Amino acid sequence: MKNRLFETYKDYFRLGAAVSGIFYDYEGFLEKRQKFIEFMKKNPRPVGMPEWKMEEPPKGPFLDSEILKQHFNIVVAENDTKPGNMNPAEGVYNFESADKFIKMAKENGQDIRWHTLLWHSQAAEWMFKNPDGTDVSKEVLEERVKNYIFTIGKRYSKDICSVDVVNECISDKKFTLRDEEDHSKWLKFMGPDYVDKVFRWAKEAFPNSSLVINDYNLETIPGKREGMYNLVKGMLERGVPVDTVGLQMHINMENPPVSEIEKTIELYGSLGLNVIVTEMDVSVYKDFQPGKESESRKEYTPELMEKQAQRYAEIFECFKKEAKAGILKDVILWGITDRFSWKNNFPVPGRTDAPLLFDTEGKPKPAFNKLLKL
Q1: Taking CA atoms, which of 5, 93, 174, 339 is between 20 and 30 Å from 29?
Q2: Is 279 a catalytic residue?
Q3: Is the pLDDT of residue 49 over 60?
Q4: What are phi and psi for residue 75, nearest 5 degrees?
Q5: Which one of 78, 142, 219, 279 is the catalytic residue?
Q6: What pLDDT, on a 0 to 100 scale, did the predictor assign at position 1?
Q7: What is the DSSP letter of 178?
Q8: Per the residue annotation, which of 78, 142, 168, 219 is the catalytic one?
Q9: How many C-beta neighbours within 10 Å does residue 202 have?
């Protein structure tokens, strides 16, 4: 038995994790955390969602960095490389945290993903406005986006193996490109071909990276899966250089069935595209539905953790099968230990979760041990 998790899967796919800036840029993490708190105070929760609050900032020591170094061979920054952080104002770039992230990964000998170039959330909001506060023209916005992509590519492309070019562009309701009703301005400002344009620019800026279109619930909602299929099929027909579909896979212990995960991977594989899993975690709670009563916090008993371990194992068996078929290339977990999972206090404030392979103390959970032996 190998004692490094990624070595168990080296003949199938790279195995990675998202890493928070708290582990490589603590002061920068605290600064961004405060800005996020201020943002949340100014933006009320959707109807039916519980009131939001953030706990006190965590203090070390942290075992996550050592776990990351030992068990994963590809990494992605959880937040630091998103456009709103990288380019908060015109002519202003925050390279410090991203540089530290890249340095950490190189020292660990890990491959590096970039997340993300274009997203409706955590966007560089200044791009949409003229200095006088009016909306910019399509031409101005396109030039700003293009400049941003090329600036990032010039600095980091030689280090990046995979880049999320466009993130979460498919509507959960209409299964077409998001519009303002779905909180995205890109369609209104740049038109229906904006995804094509961004991928073409990304190909120039990141010539040696795989170019990923990334979204959530593709393995859960059939209509959204088909909507993404129709989008990427059309892109390929137009000669747009998309080569990979990213499945976020924020799932739980009951949904979706493994058969749906398999169906999703093979659907995109049928187009000749690669598939990667970009943000996986397995919540111990059912899907949250606004307006409905949420599950109260569970006790994370040995029995519950063993059930989670079996769920991970069944899914990873599917991953191995799809990797053997030449479709699945990477599997990335969205975090390292349960202590720092984004699922704590979200979507239910005051409720923790236990969706990852290591517990809050950094100890291996049954899911880790089962995957190590799979």
Answers
A1: 5
A2: yes
A3: no
A4: -135, 160
A5: 279
A6: 42
A7: -
A8: 168
A9: 28
